[in-house]
Amino acid sequence: MYAQVIVDVPTMQTNRPYTYRVPAAMKEILQRGMRVVVPFGKGNRLVQGFVVAIKENAEQVEKLKEVIQVVEIEPVLNEELLQLGAWLADYNFAFQISVLQTMLPNVMRAKYGKVLRVLEPEKLRDWPQVALMFADRKEVPFDNDNVDHELLPQLLKLQKQNVIEIGYLVKNRAKVKMVNVLKSIKDMSFYQEQLQKLRSSAVKQARLLSFLMHAPSKFVPVKDVIKRYNLDYAVINQAETKGWLVQDQMESYRIPKLQTPVQPSQPLELNAEQQKAYDAITANIVEPEKRTFLLEGVTGSGKTEVYLQAIAKALSIGKTALMLVPEITLTPQMVRRVKSRFGDDVAVMHSGLSDGERYDEWRRIQRQEVHVVVGARSAVFAPLINIGLIIIDEEHETSYKQDDNPRYHARDVAQWRSDYHNATLLLGSATPSLESRARAQKGVYQLLTLTQRATRGALPTTEIVDMREAIKYNNDDVLSPQLLTSMQERLARQEQIVLMLNRRGYANFIICRDCGYTPRCVNCDVALTVHKDVGRLVCHYCGYSETIPRQCKICGSKRIRQFGTGTQKVVEHLNEILPEARVLRMDVDTTRKKGSVDKLLTAFGDHKADILLGTQMIAKGLDFPNVTLVGILNADTTLTLPDFRASERTFQLLTQVSGRAGRADKPGNVILQTFNPEHYAIQLAKDQDYEAFYRQEMSLRHAWRYTPYYFTVQIKFAHEQVNEAAKIAFETTNWLKNIVDKETIMLGPAPSTISRIKNKYYYRVVIKYRYDQNLMQALTELMHKGQQLQRQGVTLMIDREPTNFM
Ligand SMILES: Nc1ncnc2c1ncn2[C@@H]1O[C@H](COP(=O)(O)OP(=O)(O)OP(=O)(O)O)[C@@H](O)[C@H]1O
Ligand SMILES: [Zn+2]
Ligand SMILES: [Zn+2]
């Protein structure tokens, strides 16, 4: 019997599995989807791998090595996930090993180590220093930190003489948490008898006996018993020797906790629009026709309530449900809402969990102990079986696209899995991505709309403040007089305020403070990016560049410069102007610690602060009834992203954050500060008019030939030497130009923003295409050249439908 294994060797990036012999002892247990340890390469270094196939025959069997060890006795990847992995690697020009690893909790990634092993102990006598290091041990850990560098030459010599050898280890970091448990084993009368025999001073034993008398006949954690009855370990151990109880060890799950307990909730009565959406979705859950739904509902329209009731429907017919939410902010509030409905039947997966929690939640899913999973991007790989419904909330969010290898989009994975399970896929947003909305237009998705707020309240009214004027008035480019007055009103009324400082794209662009002008590329219509090192503005798509202007091209003003205030500065500013207001700050710095988002939001919900100031992470999902004013300090930063989706991002962000105001009975207002008050994305966000935005943006995308009319791929090259990076980028582009379809458009190569990340220079090519099989083949070929390029010091990245052009 032979196993085909995808090995974990970063430098051997290949999608070809290696064949290993299966030793007799493993024949019964080895299965597809298991992790194994195998020797690899000339040195027979031990590496971890995934068994992707098992065969009865193989070629050149005499040369084959043997599987050394199985990591666990059950497969970690089931049939579905193995198939998904193969497809995903192909589709995203990624390597299978990185895809397979991405599907599992981080701790399941093997850690490698080395050891020094003594082969002939008696020969060490002549080497006292080395002997001292071993100190009678057969094996010592060997890494660069723990071995004295002066000893290295001696060790090398001994290795050559075969006195010692270097051994390789594969360490399993995934640890199961065990707790001590106890169980009563006798009947009531036995314990009563014991109780009568006790001396009156033996109070602890008496307390234990009274517990044992009524204890359920199952194992309970020793710690709980000790705490509850005020006992100690000595008493428990003594009782065990007396035969009163038995002790054992049991696995205990580390279940992620929220700041405050979750209160159970009941389904709300749906309004007519919600009901209509619910009926369409659940009909498909019960009798699936492989439908994808796009639920387009204004902010506060009660999309979440529809999700929850649809999940309940899936559960009621014995299916499971998977719900994806964007990373960070949304997670605690959303997790709370889902848990309040489905209690312990919910597993949670997001980056805020500890490794142990993540691993345990994963195992609860794997063991089919839960039926609902809520989580961020990577939860899309949750090993649920029998899925009836997959929901992607805020489906337009860029965090669903992984920016690292493998560069997958959770939406694509969800689509694949829903096809596999014949499950319903539900995409929801107040501002759907143009791709999804266009698919609904074509009838690929079924469009469902919620046009009213669920609480019957109106959408907030928005006032656009022209900062070009405001700045003339008081020279304060943080708070306009209009925003300040509105804030004072709310503070007087004890209402709350959300302020957003948009840091997306920040500091990489220039803007004229007098007319709002930002230089854009003449070929690509995207904002030019500041490259300080060369003193130029550069287009990230085609490489067009011009010098950084000192004067505005449009109005001649000299106040054309980079933008820049941080949240900390704004807090200081607020404290100065509005000393009575209590401010909470939410940004990457204040949310780094585990549970901090939940804590901050709980405090704000309890009105322990008047103002919540945050970056774009506060834009989504927040549902606070007392918030009646939203202030957007700088609407423009997203508009100047070097990205053809800049307007879309701006519209989405502004609409989302505006939607935080006036969600309950009190009406809401939004004040939107901008240097570009006439821009259509800003004008349409004012009225939260998604449909109008969609139409206008589609016509521009058509004119400039961007998504969804064209697909895009980005190729990036990195090298320590700028010339080398440019050279390989140009060579590859020229090679591709001869292969691709004539309708395909190649932009670039162009240098990236932060052209030097980790001491490397980056060059990129952006390709726009409609249907180009040649291009796809060429990219696959290019990916397989990656290994060879790596040897030349070139890092290659192929990114399908990129969302990051920084
Ligand atoms: N049928 C209903 N009857 C009464 N209240 C409802 C109903 N549905 C939802 N709500 C309430 O309306 C508010 C907004 O709902 P929800 O948060 O689900 O909207 P949403 O569309 O998901 O919002 P957003 O996209 O802005 O985050 C919530 O407080 C929710 O409890
Ligand atoms: Zn100007
Ligand atoms: Zn350009």
UniProtKB/TrEMBL annotation:
Keyword NADP: no
Domain of life: Bacteria
Names of required cofactors: Zn(2+)
Catalytic activity, EC: 5.6.2.4
Domain Helicase ATP-binding stretches: 284-450
The record's free-text note on cofactor binding: Binds 2 zinc ions per subunit.
CDD domains in the cross-refs: DEXHc_priA, SF2_C_priA
GO MF annotation: an example: DNA binding
Enzymatic reactions: ATP + H2O = ADP + phosphate + H(+); Couples ATP hydrolysis with the unwinding of duplex DNA by translocating in the 3'-5' direction
Enzyme class: isomerase
UniProt keyword list: ATP-binding, DNA replication, DNA-binding, Helicase, Hydrolase, Isomerase, Metal-binding, Nucleotide-binding, Primosome, Zinc
Gene Ontology biological-process annotations: DNA recombination; DNA replication initiation; DNA replication, synthesis of primer; double-strand break repair
Residue positions binding Zn(2+) 2: 521, 524, 539, 542
Domain Helicase C-terminal: 547-701
Residues where Zn(2+) 1 binds: 512, 515, 552, 555
Gene Ontology annotations for the cellular component aspect, listed alphabetically: primosome complex
Record function comment: Initiates the restart of stalled replication forks, which reloads the replicative helicase on sites other than the origin of replication. Recognizes and binds to abandoned replication forks and remodels them to uncover a helicase loading site. Promotes assembly of the primosome at these replication forks.
Subunit structure: Component of the replication restart primosome.
Family annotation (HAMAP family): PriA (MF_00983)
Family: Belongs to the helicase family. PriA subfamily.
Name this protein carries in UniProt: Replication restart protein PriA
Native species: Weissella bombi
